[in-house]
Amino acid sequence: MSLRTALNRLLGRPAAPSHPSAPSSGSKDATVAHLQEFVRTRVGVEAYVEPPNAQTPTTVLLVATTGEWTRRRVPDERTGFEVARSLGVPVYNVRFTGYPQRMRDWNTAQRAKHHRH
């Protein structure tokens, strides 16, 4: 799947927009831009698709080699996998893999860092 197709799906646009000049949703564009920037500026990024639960919708979690991470909502799991693949990063279902240890270590280090200040 192409990046354009996956991003159109994420943004809820038809594959061939009938109104190419129509403004796009700023928040969805911002989400896409954020994910692309995270991948572009970090090393070894992997994606984890998180299924919806009672408190949160479906999300894509990106985790860098350092453990730094970011999370964004997506419409559904299929779209989450498509978006991650379009970003060119490995993608996993967190239901089966769990969260990477490096992410937990990074969170612990960040809490300690903020607690000292």
TrEMBL record:
Record field: compositional bias (Low complexity): 14-25
Location of region: Disordered: 10-32
Protein name (record): Oxidoreductase
Species for this entry: Isoptericola hypogeus
